[in-house]
Amino acid sequence: TRRGGSGDLGIFHAGTPKSLPSSGQKSIQEVCHPLSAEEPVLPPSPDGGSTTTTKDLSLPNGNAVDTSSPASSSSLLNRLQLDDDLDGETRDLFVTVDDPKKHVSTMETYITYRVSTKTTRTEFDLPEYSVRRRYQDFDWLRNKLEDSQPTHLIPPLPEKFVMKGVVDRFSEEFVETRRKALDKFLKRVADHPVLSFNEHFNVFLSAKDLNKRQGLALLSKMGESVKYVTGGYKLRLRPVEFAAMGDYLDVFTQKLGTIDRIAQRIIKEQSEYLVELREYGPVYSSWASSEEEALQEPLDGVAGCVANCCSALEEQTEDMSEDFLPVLREYILYIESMKNVLKKRDQVQAEYEAKLEAVAFREDKKTPVPTDVEKCQDRVECFNADLKADWDRWQNNKRQDFRQLLTGMADKNIQYYEKVRKKG
Fold first, then answer.
1. Measured distance CA(291)–CA(300) in Å, rounded
2. Which residues form the PX domain (predicted)?
């Protein structure tokens, strides 16, 4: 499933449920690195000539594709997203989170967000909904999705708790950052061919007053079976492709964690440097006012240059804090979600292996395999297929998100250096 292109990283399209890939999918070793761009190897031409071929490229709407080199990283990104934009007509569920409002009562202070939905799906009674939800409502939804869809990767929510005295959770910057993260969470769920049809998701989007108790009976049999798997079963050996997933996640966690720590240190140092610059520039302005014209002009020039540097550095620091770090943290949380699904899959496989072993050692070899063993095998196969499908979806999302993030960073760094070069 491809995601619709937009400035919002979480833009989506969701259609009718599609059958999930079988366990015969390609192995994880065959999946390209999310940021790689390896060209496919072309077979030799029949006449023994060059393998370079020229063919007419056209879009589904009949327009020719421009194959010239992009003028900038932004134009490159737009071209990469062009095909996604053509899929806009396939969407039948649009969800947005906006309009945060602060509520103060005698008992607590909290923020609510407007959740707007437009849809043509028959599962909904109306084509449009607008409800208000607070963070704990989003948390309720995610928990319900985890319980009722244990074989699927549930997108992460932004972290609930913040350090008091370090971050003001009612500040405009914090609320906006959380709003973007909640919006992305819902868009990712709406983009999923299975999660988007979950009854809890329907209730979350449409119910005026969200009763946390409703939907408790909606837990699927799969959810119940996985929920009550005990820790008494021990997996002998994780299959190679799932072991490769775990290894990849471990390495990816380490890389993102290192980048996150360094980025936070850079932001801290830039913020401290910005404080010094703001004090540094006015000194030259004050000095210039007490000098003759011959010296006044170069002093004003220095003050103007410092002011330009302050403005550019402040903008660059904000970009890193508001755009770069949230994506890193989302994927760090995403990795934890993926690891949890892998653990659940291992538990189901371990239970199946234990039951199969018990059958193998029974005295009566002629009786058929118990149905509970067959059901356990079905759960393993279902887990494998769902996990592989979600892994591919996650890799595709990751590739698009980081491509857009890194391309945007390149443009913003160019803008930063262009701005500081201007004369004051």
1. 11
2. 91-212
